[in-house]
Amino acid sequence: MNNQLNRVIEALPAIAWMATAEGGIDFFNQRWYDYTGLELEHDQRRGLEAAVHTEDLSRLVQSRQTTAPSELVHELEIRLKRFDGVYRWFLLTLCTLPATTDLAWIRCGICTDIDDRKRAEAALAECRQHHLSYIARTDFERTQSEDTLNKMRSELAHMTRVASLDTLTASIAHEVNQPLSGIITNASTCLRMLVADPPNINGALETARRTIRDGNRAANVISRLRTLFSKNVVNVEAVDLNESTREVLALTCSELQRNDITTHLDLADNLPRVPSDRVQLQQVILNLLLNACEAMIDIDDRPRLLLIRTGHDTHHVRLEVRDAGCGVEPGDLEKIFDAFYTTKQVGMGMGLSISRSIIESYNGQLSATRNDGHGATFWFALPRQSSCEPTPASPPHLTMTFQ
Ligand SMILES: Nc1ncnc2c1ncn2[C@@H]1O[C@H](COP(=O)(O)OP(=O)(O)OP(=O)(O)O)[C@@H](O)[C@H]1O
Ligand SMILES: [Mg+2]
């Protein structure tokens, strides 16, 4: 029986040992000596400590102290020094056999080589760490490049807005001059009424009120200009496209009038808002209006008609600008959206390209189609704000004509 037992213990694919009640080692199987290269007589008394890595010693000692006789199995990972000085990881499984009437309790155990597993785990952890830092880095780089892209887009958009200012100077001057001359006329009338004998107080009050109204009109034009031409930062909010269209028209109506353009407005009721930057959308509308205006400048054989229409379906809000101008050749319908593509002598060729990039940044679409008759229709569709209330009803299908 003892021989059989010995054969089994020697055949175990692990280092096996048995400790004395005092803590010394009673027995090691041959694998211990083969692995450590230690001598039987010389090192047996020192037990496992003879080969345990100094960094793992305290854990081994501590485990012996905390492993009470009642705790039957206890596991610990330690490094054992091989005969050639190399340390390998082992799983130390301690087993405590309770005392019987004849025998004191004994502790025995096995040490299984887990070095390959530990290396694989470490490699995996390193791989995972690389992967995580790669994800974090690419995430960071993506955010950085998105930021740069947004900044570039907003700077370019600002440039093209400032370029439009040049075109609009005359009509803006007109917009401001009108209320200013009203103010001067009313203020002089007011003075006359006050110095009259008897003074016309009611008349003076009324003209003073008109002066204030004109002052507000001029201030409004200036404040619209300031928002449209000075702003360079993006601010996403729930935008009412009808309102934005009206504001852009307030700045361009003199330009449209000056060029004999008849403008019809067909703004849908209860138009859902779109999550976007109000000034950016106004810039898109402005670009489309100026293009439409420029496309009709040389048209003399038919009315110069401009239609601005808004509408929506279950998912999108749409705005279209339809003109009766020179139109776009079928082969150019996409080319016109390229940056720097222009057929105009003083054009930059940036208006449509910037506009498309703005609309696409809000997951929308900007396109052009040829009209059945003359001219072209430029339209964009933007995802509607889901959780937002529709805008209050505007006058039903308001149609305004400027001429
Ligand atoms: N409504 C339109 N009808 C016909 N052609 C148009 C219309 N809108 C744009 N185009 C064509 O597309 C080209 C590009 O338009 P885009 O607005 O990008 O640049 P641009 O008007 O030439 O210059 P800018 O950068 O100053 O706006 C125009 O030069 C014109 O040939
Ligand atoms: Mg343009």
Automatic annotation (TrEMBL):
Give the enzyme's EC designation.
Answer: 2.7.13.3
Q: What class of enzyme is it?
A: transferase
Coiled-coil parts of chain: none
SUPFAM superfamilies named in the record: ATPase domain of HSP90 chaperone/DNA topoisomerase II/histidine kinase, Homodimeric domain of signal transducing histidine kinase, PYP-like sensor domain (PAS domain)
> Any idea which UniProt keywords this protein has?
ATP-binding, Kinase, Nucleotide-binding, Phosphoprotein, Transferase, Two-component regulatory system
Tell me which CDD domains the record gives: HisKA (cd00082), PAS (cd00130)
Name all Histidine kinase domain ranges. 171-386
Q: Which domain of life is it from?
A: Bacteria
Q: Recorded GO terms, molecular function?
A: ATP binding; phosphorelay sensor kinase activity
Residues of the PAC domain: 74-126
Catalyses: ATP + protein L-histidine = ADP + protein N-phospho-L-histidine
User: Which InterPro entries would you find in this protein's record?
Assistant: HATPase_C_sf, HATPase_dom, His_kinase_dom, HisK_dim/P_dom, HisK_dim/P_sf, PAS, PAS-assoc_C, PAS-like_dom_sf
Identify the NCBIfam families for this entry: sensory_box (TIGR00229)
Protein's UniProt name: histidine kinase
